Amino acid sequence: MPNDAEHEKRALRADLRERRSLLSEAQRESAALAIGERLDALVDSLGAHSISCFLSTMNEPGTRDFVTRAVQRGIRVLLPITRADGLLDWAVATDDDEIAEGLFGLPEPTGEVLGPIAVNDVDLMIVPAAAVDRTGMRMGWGRGYFDKTIGSMEKCPPVYAVIYDSEILDSLPREVHDQPVNGVVTPSQTLILSHPRR
Question: Name one Pfam family in it (predicted).
Fold first, then answer.
C-alpha cells in the first residue's frame, strides 16, 4: 500500500511535470544557457577534473551544452545508463557522442559501458530532480536510481541537483531511502544547502 509520503510525492510530481511542460522553447533555452554558465563556474570552484552529469530530456533544465563544453575542456564526464535492476551503469562522454533511447525513453550515451562503481571516482555529481527543499532533501521522479547510487557510495563527492528556480521548496515529503543533495543549480543561482559527506 502506498504511504502518505508516496501519495504526496505523486501529486507533487504531476504538478511539477505540468509546470515544466508549459515553459516555452525560449524560456528553456534561456534557462539552459544560464544553468550551463553556473555549472561551468561550479566545476571551476571545486577544481573538479572528473564529474558525472545527466543528459537532459526536453522537459528538464538543459545540461547537454554544458556536457559538451566540459568534455572539450578536458574534464572527464560520466553519463548515466539505466539498468533494469535499478542501478546505474556509466559511459564516458565524448565529443561526438551519439545518443540512444534508454529505459523509460531517457537519453543515454552509446559508448563503452562501465559498471556502477565507476562513479566512485568523480569529484562532483550533477543529478536531475523534480524539486529540492531548503534542507537539501531531493525528490526525484520516482524510480530511485540516484537515491540508490548516492546512498551506496563510500565517499560521496558534492552532489548538486539541477532544477528551475520555482522548484526550490520549503519542505518535501520524505521517505527512508531519500538522499539529500549538497546544493542546487538553477538559472538564477547556485545554492549550497548542506555540507558533503566524507
Answer: 5-FTHF_cyc-lig
C-alpha cell at 10: 505523486
Feature table: binding site: 9-13, 55, 60
Question: What's at 68, amino acid-wise?
Answer: T
Which domains are present in the chain? Answer: 2-190 (3.40.50.10420)
Position 107 scores a pLDDT of 59
Please state the pTM of the whole predicted model.
0.91
Query: What is the rounded CA–CA span in Å between residue 149 and residue 119?
Result: 9
Quote the CA–CA distance of 94 and 33 in Å, as a whole number: 21
Percent of the chain with pLDDT over 90: 64
Q: Cell triple for residue 133? A: 527543499
What pLDDT sits at residue 1?
45
Which residues, in sequence order, are CB contacts of 119 under 8 Å at separation 6+? 52, 78, 88, 90, 125, 149, 153
Cβ–Cβ < 8 Å for 161, 184: yes
Annotated binding-site ranges for ATP:
9-13
Q: Looking only at Cα atoms, what is the longest distance across the chain?
A: 49
Residue numbering of the annotated binding site for substrate: 55, 60
